Amino acid sequence: MQPNDVIYDWNTRGHAISPPMRRAEVHDETLRDGIQCPSAYDPDIDKKVEILRLLDKVGVDTTNVGLPGAGPRAVEDSTRLVEVIRDEGLSIRPGCAARTHPNDIAPIIGISEKTGVPIEIMTFLGSSPIRMYAEKWDEDRLEKLTRTAVKMGVEAGLPVSFVTEDTVRSRPQTLKRVFEAAIEEGASRLVLCDTVGHSTTNGVFNLVHWTHDLLIGMGVRDKVKLDWHGHNDRGHGLTNALYAIEAGVDRVHGCVLGIGERVGNTPLDLLLVNLKLLGAEERELVDLTKLVEAVAEACHWDIPVNYPVFGRDAFRTGTGVHAAAVIKAENNGDAWLADAVYSGVPASWVGKYQEIEIGHQSGLSNIKYWLRKRKIADEDDAIAHAIFDYAKTKSELLSDAEILGVIEQAQAS
User: Fold this and answer.
1) Which option is the CATH number for 21-298: 3.40.50.2000, 3.40.640.10, 3.20.20.70, 3.30.750.24?
2) Which of 3, 280, 283, 360 is the most exposed place for a label (fewest CB within 10 A)?
3) Mind listing the pLDDT tens digit for each residue in 197-208?
């Protein structure tokens, strides 16, 4: 049996069908932009190394290892992470953030020279009129800062990405001027940012296509790549990242669990899962749960129980009808069916499994399944009925301790 035999997918059938999702690189910002979240803990270096290794395991292409211009600890941590990439032969490529200022770019050049590893310099500059008004900047200043920063990195032999903060609220004439300046000085990437989570999908398409046309007009589209970096203030982070790929960007940014400034960034973990569901990913994601849990622990972050895929309740049910369908599929020896009949995401992809619990909405099938999984004999169904009767008196799922207590009483009577 094939999935298409039992699932009619309205996502891919009908009049309005998007083109097949393109393959794009994925860039992680957890250890830089992510830990700027006011509620996140900045992990110690050993935790950062663990996260780095797991990012590599799930096939993330590049990662921002820090902002060395922030001070000595940032330099030390960034250096150690680059050394781990070098010494362990990891595939993930490092980048570092920098303001468009020599004091931020010089430490990145120094780390690269010390480690012998080329580090992508991701130099950022606010470009929107509201930011220019607040900072008392004009376009002449923006162009000068852009040229100085990009030239410094390129002359050091490092790849330079030019990042415009608040790109989605910037004027075309301003963007044209600074983009042309960055490219003339040798920038190999432009990073389009939705810094305050303002953009809708229309905004994504308009901005990406405008930039794409600008690069074509300059004759450099085959040399200069485009990135999308989005935040989630309006709840559009994940959707906008997918639309950005469809619109033509070469790389999208995200943070594990969506941590980041204010309400956070595009959730990198959900981005990877959705790209795989859309057929644009061949990465094995079985270690993705370990990555999510490692970030949560290191950053002292509580994962909401209803967080998609990785929340406590993502593959958990105590409802009789739902559980019965999963159990029937499993009893037929069809693991794929059991994983899909009441789930839009295969739990096995991320190293998880469907969980059948017992509560006041459960049927006897839930209870017999629970007992069978734990090899608890129930010859005449007396134990199952005792648990069933007890569960109906409660308003939440039963804990294992509660169920074992009921079993003990039933066996003693």
Assistant:
1) 3.20.20.70
2) 3
3) 999 999 999 999
